[in-house]
Amino acid sequence: MHVEPQVEHNWLENLVGKWTMEAEMDMGPDKPQDHSRGVEHVRQLGDVWVICEGEWENPGGGVGRSMMTLGFDTNQKSFVGSFVGSMMTHLWTYDRGSLDDAGRVLTLNSTGPNFSGQGMSQYQDIIEIVDVDHRVLRSQVLDENEVWQHFMTANYTRQA
């Protein structure tokens, strides 16, 4: 089977490279913000997927690691992928991902455990291409009132 790369596959090339990362995370009401620094290596898997491998300082100590896959499913006409991290046991799957009209912001949808530990919630990871050497990842969760609550921002700067 051969797939011709589409415009959406080409968009993923914006992510390829070596990046440094600085993140701020809200850890809940009445808790201070946590900060973290790390690196991410993003490479292509053929012409239609990217693999993002991250490593950072855990706010509580130690090193965290993650792997994200991103692609575009031509049958579904949406971005798809997955995320796993060494700090959790849930396999996050992305579906119904879409680019904004300007082609700068990719919104990825997922379902995962809510912060209370009881039940599941809807999440979004939003990747914004600011320029060729800067991108931002924002994460948010849909609360019980169906309002998106922002809880994490990571700024990435290209190193190579």
Short note summarizing the structure:
The chain is mainly β. The protein has one helix at residues 7-11, and strands at 17-25, 34-45, 49-57, 63-73, 78-85, 92-99, 105-113, 120-131, 134-142, 148-158.
Topology diagram in text:
Elements lengths: L6 H5 L5 E9 L8 E12 L3 E9 L5 E11 L4 E8 L6 E8 L5 E9 L6 E12 L2 E9 L5 E11 L2
Antiparallel strand pairs: 1-2, 1-10, 2-3, 3-4, 4-5, 5-6, 6-7, 7-8, 8-9, 9-10
- Terminus-to-terminus distance: 32 Å
- What's the main sheet like? 10 strands, antiparallel, barrel
Within the largest sheet, what's the order of strands? 1-2-3-4-5-6-7-8-9-10
What helical percentage do the residues reach? under 10%
Proportion of residues in β-strands: over 45%
**Average pLDDT taken over every residue:** 94
Describe it for me?
The protein has 160 residues and is mainly β. Helix content is 3%, strand content 61%. The chain contains one helix and ten strands. It has one helix at residues 7-11, and strands spanning 17-25, 34-45, 49-57, 63-73, 78-85, 92-99, 105-113, 120-131, 134-142, 148-158. It has a ten-stranded antiparallel β-barrel with strand order 1-2-3-4-5-6-7-8-9-10. The chain is globular. The N and C termini lie far apart (32 Å).
Write a concise keyword list for the protein shown above.
10 strands, mainly beta, 10-stranded antiparallel beta barrel, 1 helix, 160 residues
